[in-house]
Design goal:
667 residues; 3-stranded antiparallel β-sheet; mainly alpha; disordered N terminus
Length: 667
């Protein structure tokens, strides 16, 4: 329309609203009410939720669902400003700029939140809702129940009218067991307390008013109806705890002035109002509670966690500052995981909280948790550079302490690829850049094993890093990278002048051996490009890289190795088994075919027991390999081993009937 004709969006929306108003009568009223609900609802409304919301006559005793307008009517009277999101089945404005425009013109809607609150309460007070049996057998019976129950108080809090107070008091005075109470409980309480109950045990009108933070209703309820102000609901949440949890300062203040209030009454998990307020960062409520002499700021819950711990976990710097201002606060207390507030803050990257805690004299910077992780090691692992920088600024922090998984902070950062943290740690003069972890790997080897190219470059550029440092198993960083197939890291390491590309581990296995046995073709090619790499170098059991590639069926690696001029394709291991024997005994048909194409491979070469590759295939029942070998002229099918037994005998003994059928005619 106007937008396509080049008129500004604001002008287009203004013109559309003029058309809406020009409709006159019920159509204009319905359109404006629809836009008000869509703009000011706390979440997108389902089609039937909106229809039933618009059917409510504020102040009426009854609710008549037949008054609900059709979606077609709404689309028509709104002149194209709204649409139905078919995926979510919700009604929304056609573009976010429509909502921006409507919200920028508050004069379009008179007291929208009061109107919505009164509509929700009128609906909930109607006999059509009060008399519902719960749980509902058909949600469509009361599609507006869920929204009205969950958000009437939210709207009332934003714009409270005397009518809403009266309607609210009417609801909360008959609240326990009301369908609205059940619906609210199901939406805000843990499922284990509400699933399948169809009721709202102990969730009173006072709990509801405190949940929403409506001081006027809390006051009216306690003054006129009387109640147990410390009663917990099914989750153990008292009215004060709900107010603390949701940050309702006014309600908390009112309740705390009540002489019978118990400010420390915990929920079913041992969390007191103060813990909830601290956990959620509600500084106003925290101040109110801390001002009382009967509130213990160090009281732990069932996880042995205190409010300082929860505030540190969530990064609530304001709350932490309040708590640390008290002389009686225990700032280094551990929870069930042996974690201090400092460790939690460092782990979660809350720089502001870490800074506050570091200002204390009673903090142990190196205190480990039950995984041996320290504040520094956890911050390094998760890449929290600002926190790492703060911790490294302290002389009493140990940058080399082995933490979680037996790694140094440097190794933890290296494995995760946190280059900034790696640089910060290397900047400490007392950091041991070669210190191995419990697995014997240095930070360089750890980074190489997981392919962290950037970190490997940084470490190799550090003067003290040893590129050939052996782990407990004698493996170099190059071996770790080759074995795990990280070609980029292999190339980086090979470019270093001091690298030893053919250094074996304690088992005699070289980087080429590790790459070949794991099928890493690119790495094999890179290593074979080096003149100082011996392609035939055997391990302690005499197995060559080719033998292991053949035995594990890595055809691509076998081909690459066979293309190398210096390769010995028939070199046996200490048991006399050749690469062909290894491939045959493991049933790798394609590798067997590749090897048999070589003139320098003896297809009938026996091992030290006199057993040929055919023995290996027959013994283990590899019918396909047996066929391939029998098709070769140089294979002797009846050749006995040193014990006088033939391939047929071994196949029969092992119960491989199909192989027996192939060999028997040849005897």
């Amino acid at each position: 329309m106007a937008v396509k004709e080049g008129v500004g969006l604001g002008d287009a929306y203004g013109a559309t609203l003029e058309w809406i108003k020009a409709q006159g009568g019920e159509k204009t009223g319905l359109a404006m009410a629809t836009l008000m609900w869509i703009c000011h609802a706390e979440r997108p409304l389902q089609v039937d939720e909106l229809r039933h919301a618009l059917a409510v006559e504020i102040g009426a005793t009854d609710f008549n669902s037949e008054n609900a307008p059709s979606m077609g009517e709404l689309l028509s009277c709104c002149q194209g400003l709204i649409t139905v999101d078919k995926e979510a089945s919700t009604v929304r404005v056609i573009h976010f700029t429509v909502q921006e425009y409507l919200c920028a013109h508050p004069d379009l809607f008179s007291r929208p939140h009061s109107v919505i609150a009164e509509a929700c309460l009128t609906y909930l007070n109607s006999p059509q809702v009060k008399n519902l049996s719960y749980p509902l057998t058909d949600h469509q019976v009361a599609p507006f129940l869920k929204y009205a129950s969950r958000y009437w108080g939210t709207h009332a809090n934003k714009e409270l009218s005397s009518h809403a107070v009266a309607l609210g008091l009417q609801l909360v005075s008959q609240y326990e067991g009301h369908p609205s109470a059940v619906s609210l409980c199901e939406q805000v309480l843990p499922t284990k307390y509400t699933a399948g109950t169809g009721s709202s045990p102990h969730f009173s009108g006072l709990h509801c008013a405190s949940f929403f933070g409506i001081v006027e209703l809390v006051a009216l309820f306690t003054n006129t109806l009387g109640c147990d102000i410390n009663l917990g609901d099914c989750a153990g949440y008292t009215p004060l705890l709900w107010a603390a949890k949701n940050g309702h300062d006014g309600v908390a203040k009112f309740l705390l002035e009540h002489e019978d209030i118990d400010p420390n009454r915990p929920d079913n998990h041992g969390s007191a109002p103060l813990s909830w307020a601290a956990d959620n960062g509600h500084e106003g409520v925290v101040k109110l509670l801390l001002s009382r002499k009967d509130v213990d700021p160090n009281r732990p819950d069932e996880n042995n966690q205190t409010l300082l711990g929860y505030a540190a976990i969530r990064g609530r710097a304001g709350v932490v500052k309040l708590l640390l201002g008290r002389e009686d606060i225990k700032s280094d207390r551990v929870d069930n995981q042996e974690r201090t507030p400092l460790l939690w803050a460092a782990n979660n990257g809350h720089e502001g909280v870490v800074k506050l805690l570091l200002g204390r004299n009673d903090i142990d910077l190196n205190r480990p948790d039950n995984q041996d992780g320290t504040p520094l090691s956890w911050a390094a692992r998760y890449g929290h550079e600002d926190v790492v920088k703060l911790l490294l600024g302290r002389k009493d922090v140990d940058p080399n302490r082995l933490g979680q998984n037996g790694r140094t902070p440097l190794a933890s950062a290296a494995i995760e690829g946190h280059e900034g943290v790696v640089k910060l740690l290397l900047g400490r003069k007392d950091v041991d850049s070669n210190r191995p972890g419990h697995n014997g790997r240095t930070p360089l080897a750890s980074a190489a094993a997981v392919g962290q190219e950037g970190v490997v470059k940084i470490l190799l550029g550090w003067k003290d890093v040893d590129p050939n440092r052996l782990g407990h198993d004698g493996q170099t960083p190059l071996y770790s990278a080759a074995c795990t197939g990280h070609g980029g890291v292999v190339k980086i390491l090979l470019s270093h002048n001091d690298i030893k590309p053919d250094k074996p581990d304690v088992y005699g296995q070289t980087p080429l051996f590790g790459a070949a046995s794991n099928g890493h073709e690119t790495v094999v090619e890179v290593l074979l490009g080096r003149e100082d790499v011996n392609p035939n170098k055997p391990d302690n059991r005499g197995r060559t890289p080719l033998y292991c590639a053949a035995r594990t069926g890595h055809e691509g690696v076998v081909k690459i190795l066979l293309d190398h001029n210096d390769i010995d394709p028939d070199k046996p291991d200490v048991h006399g088994q050749t690469p062909l024997f290894g491939a045959a005994s493991n049933g790798h048909e394609r590798v067997v075919e590749v090897l048999l194409r070589r003139d320098d491979v003896d297809p009938d070469k026996p091992n030290k027991n006199g057993q040929t590759p055919l023995f290996g295939a027959a013994w283990d029942g590899h019918e396909g390999v047996t066929k391939i070998l029998l098709g070769h002229d140089d294979v002797s099918p009846n050749k006995p081993d040193k014990s006088g037994r033939t391939p047929l005998w071994w196949a029969a003994k092992s119960g491989h009937a199909s192989v027996v059928a192939l060999l028997q005619p040849l005897t």
